[in-house]
Amino acid sequence: MRSYPIDAERVRLISTGTVSPVTKWVELSDGSRRPDPTGRQDEDENGRPLWRVEVIMPADEGDDRDKTGVAEITVASKDRPDPGAFGDLLVFEGLVVSPGYVNKRSGQLTPARWSANGIRKQGGRAAAAAA
Question: How high is the pLDDT of residue 122?
Answer without folding.
Answer: 66
